Amino acid sequence: MVKVVISGALGRMGTNIGRIVDEAPDMELVGGIDVREGTLFGTEVVPAAEIDAFLKEKKPDALIDFTVAAAAVENIKAAARNDVALIVGTTGFSPEQRTTIASAVEGHVPAVISSNFSVGVNIFWKLVREAARELGDYDIEVTEAHHRYKKDAPSGTAKTILEILDQELGSREKVYGRVGETERKDEIGVHVIRGGDIVGDHSVLFAGNFECIEISHRAYDRAVFAQGAVRAARWVVGREPRIYDMQDVLGL
Ligand SMILES: NC(=O)C1=CN([C@@H]2O[C@H](COP(=O)(O)OP(=O)(O)OC[C@H]3O[C@@H](n4cnc5c(N)ncnc54)[C@H](O)[C@@H]3O)[C@@H](O)[C@H]2O)C=CC1
Ligand SMILES: O=C(O)C1=N[C@H](C(=O)O)C[C@H](O)C1
């Protein structure tokens, strides 16, 4: 049995993940963390200030964190202190927060950290990498769309796309939207749409002369992210104490 605590337990992702863990025959949902008390599928949700005591009491194998960046950093440090493996889906980390996370995790606990846990997006990233290798002289535009409540922009997934493009093409200037007189050089354009209940759309356009290739992914339900996070939880327990990504979990 993999014993799981979820932080961000009362949020959109927390509740989706809670349902899957609760129904999994090989897992036990032992509780949740959020900013306030509550319940998650019959288990206790406690305020974040009590995370250390809660982890000591429940002794979970894994903590799954889908919160906000500043909160996730503290939850990650608490999990590492208490020898609990991590699955982190939270996005919007600053470079400094990433460094803090790496020193909390490396050599202490295994952690799968990914801006997108869907299988489809992990394949999409591979296709983007392949296209960038072949189409480096085409103009590139990245577009993402999400629901009106999303706190960070661009999305973590879009930032991962930009990292992949930088790895393949060298670092290019990023232009976030355009207005007024513009002259296209070899920058990468980045465009963010927020509205309604859009679950998560990402596309990369490679525009050449007389042809375009557009690679895109659309999530229709948060279940794709939640299922990936639960798959990562099964995979990570007992691994070497370092940071992994979802490509490691999927063997891509
Ligand atoms: N990697 C992936 O596949 C995915 C990542 N995300 C990311 O997950 C995060 C959460 O997304 P949603 O669930 O839509 O947001 P949400 O706002 O619905 O849920 C976040 C929850 O975290 C709670 N929270 C805030 N501070 C906390 C703390 N200190 N400790 C514990 N809980 C705390 C909030 O009260 C809220 O219930 C975002 O960063 C989002 O970008 C979302 C979907 C997929
Ligand atoms: O906040 C969301 O909803 C999502 N966030 C992730 C991101 O920032 O890339 C993944 C997914 O697109 C949904």
Structure overview:
The chain has 252 residues and is an alpha/beta fold. The chain folds into two domains: 2-117 and 223-250, NAD(P)-binding Rossmann-like Domain (Rossmann fold, 3-Layer(aba) Sandwich); 119-219, Dihydrodipicolinate Reductase, domain 2 (2-Layer Sandwich), CATH 3.30.360.10. Helix content is 37%, strand content 27%. The chain contains eight helices and 13 strands. The strands form two sheets. Strands 3-4-2-1-5-6-7-13 form an eight-stranded mixed sheet, with helices on both faces. A five-stranded mixed sheet has the order 9-10-8-11-12, covered by helices on one side. It is elongated and about 60 Å long. The mean pLDDT is 98. This is 4-hydroxy-tetrahydrodipicolinate reductase.
Which terms summarize this structure?
binds 1,4-dihydronicotinamide adenine dinucleotide, 37% helix, 8 helices, binds the ligand O=C(O)C1=N[C@H](C(=O)O)C[C@H](O)C1, single chain, Dihydrodipicolinate Reductase, domain 2, elongated, 252 residues, 13 strands, eight-stranded mixed β-sheet, alpha/beta, Rossmann fold
* SSE string: EHEEEHEHEHEHEHEEEEHEH
Coarse shape: elongated
Structural domains: how many: 2
Distance between the termini: 26 Å
CATH class of the largest domain, named: Alpha Beta
Number of strands: 13
Structural class: alpha/beta
Task: Report the radius of gyration as a whole number of Å.
Answer: 19 Å
The spatial strand order of the largest sheet comes to 3-4-2-1-5-6-7-13
Low-confidence stretches: none
CATH fold category name of the largest domain: Rossmann fold
The averaged pLDDT comes out at 98
Taking the sheet with the most strands, its summary is: 8 strands, mixed
**CATH homology-level superfamily of the largest domain:** NAD(P)-binding Rossmann-like Domain
Bound molecules: 1,4-dihydronicotinamide adenine dinucleotide, the ligand O=C(O)C1=N[C@H](C(=O)O)C[C@H](O)C1
Number of helices: 8
Residues in β-strands, percent: 25-35%
Binding site for NAD(+): 8-13, 34, 89-91, 114-117
GO molecular function: 4-hydroxy-tetrahydrodipicolinate reductase; NAD binding; NADP binding; oxidoreductase activity, acting on CH or CH2 groups, NAD or NADP as acceptor
Family: Belongs to the DapB family.
Pfam families: DapB_C, DapB_N
